[in-house]
Specification:
about 650 residues; Elongation Factor Tu (Ef-tu), domain 3; 19 helices; about 30% helix; globular
Length: about 650
Amino acid sequence: MVSAGAHRSDLIAQDILGYLREHEQKDLLRFLTCGSVDDGKSTLIGRLLHDSKMIYEDQLAAVEADSATVGSVGGDLDLALLMDGLKAEREQGITIDVAYRYFSTARRKFIIADTPGHEQYTRNMVTGASNCQLAIILIDARNGVRPQTKRHSYIASLLGIKHIVVAINKMDLVDYSKDRYEEIRDHYMECGERLGITDPFFIPMSALRGDWVVEPGENMDWFEGPPLMDYLETVPIVADQNLEDLRLPVQLVSRPDLDFRGYAGTVASGVVRPGDEVLVLPSGKTSHVDRIVTFDGDLELAGPGMAVSITLTEDLDVSRGDMLVHPANPPARSHDVDAMIVWMAEQELVPGKEYLVRQSNRTSTGAVSSVQHRVDINTLETEPAPTLELNEIGRCTVTLDQEILYDPYRRNRHTGAFILIDRLTNATLAAGMITEDETGWTATPDEHLTRHLSEITGNEREARYGQKAVTILLTGLTGAGKSTIATALERRLFDRGRSTVRLDGENLRLGISKDLGFSSQERSENLRRASEVARLVNDQGLICIMAMVAPKEHVRDMARDLVGPDRFVEVHLDAPIEVCRARDTSGLYAAADRGSIPQFPGVTATYDIPANADLVLDTVDNDIPTCVNRIVEYLVERGDLNPRRTSAE
């Protein structure tokens, strides 16, 4: 039996069905304990369970018996033995593998993951942390912040764990010193800022003695915060869910009879209701939700974590592996992604070697095409690396044979995570978190900076120049004619009395972007810099012409948003890759074929053909003057070239 008071609910004795309904409605918090070796992780969990009356009596008796033979706290009860169940763990007094415990209180249900502290078991820690919402970073008050503390904090941040508790443990061994607690707290804050951990919750405690774990205790009355258990019961986690981006991977097509076709799956994020328009990916077909079916009946709404079957108003070809999303905010699509990879195998990563890539509910073949850098966990600095070895973390580019649907991991854990699997042994080799390769796009300027506005209005500039400010992005494969047409367009507009600025991708790389290479991330940054310049140019009333490959559609969309959708024109210069190769006089395609230029769109990386370009020009059937004429005509139709300036034309 469980010790009295385990769930602290009178209903369990009076109304068992009512108790079960109450229990089902509690939210669930998954959390892990991590930190350096011997910081007291297993002891802390044991103390949480013991003082909360969450231990079965036979378990407690077994721990009491084992404490006398393999315990590490003298003759006292060794609560760490509750978690360290492996023989090797008990013999050595360490945690080797992840151990899980489940319990509940009157307020909330919990799943605890006790993860190893040794560096050699970093992969186990990643496994335990992958589904957690909160991490307890333990620090031995005698030792302070250690390298493994930083390592686990970095991994927790990398895995997108938003709630960090820094438990400064073993305060009984430093005489419950407030000064020592504040010293460690300030040191961790300095490290945490570099890791992106902005608001951790600090708490002093003694897991062995029970101070500030479940009850406040009498030894640190200077601490004004709540005990750890109170914090775990009240930390807000509902707001952590992504309710904006509907992602419903189809796991099964259900056909119990001729009159029913349902698409079953678990809602990964977002909310769906009957009547909602949904887009089926990758096919691109649209329909509307007819019903949301569950075992207990139809629902009016389904959200994250709910297993449902969706029926549609139209019969579409929807298969296992497809995804239902809202048309307004689909996921990104690509054959290659940038990701932070934690390598978990004894053998080192081999760039170019084919692995199985399992992401969401789809499995494809892929390879790590390049390792961009490796992270030194101790200094948090990046360093060049040809490969990754056991427990190392690095930023890599992964290229797949099938297009995947994904979101950045920090936005959506389900669609932003993947694992690499050995094709022969079926062993899991690595865990990957797809990154936002647009760090500069989303960066927040310093709060002390102020944008200084001009006293000259846009209307005044339009009247002066006889034109509206607009940015024209010419995008296409290398050799499609971007630079040639951009130069001719500049000439045409200048001869007609217009004021322009031309931003050529190659020219940018000789100056403002000379520090950038050609990875997906660096191409994104190159377009961001050009777009920032284009916005400034437009603010001055000038027309900006950008000639850039810009291979990723979602990055081009961000450029449109940055410049302003009303003054952005995307022109796709369409030419078959065979024609582009024939036009190439610089030998770029040949170099890409040899592997000298990694991630070259059209050869070793994909080019996302614009789905919603404002203008598409076939540069094979149309010569340069014709293409320029089409662009000018389009600008006139938009009203960007003011017809009042006839004297200059």
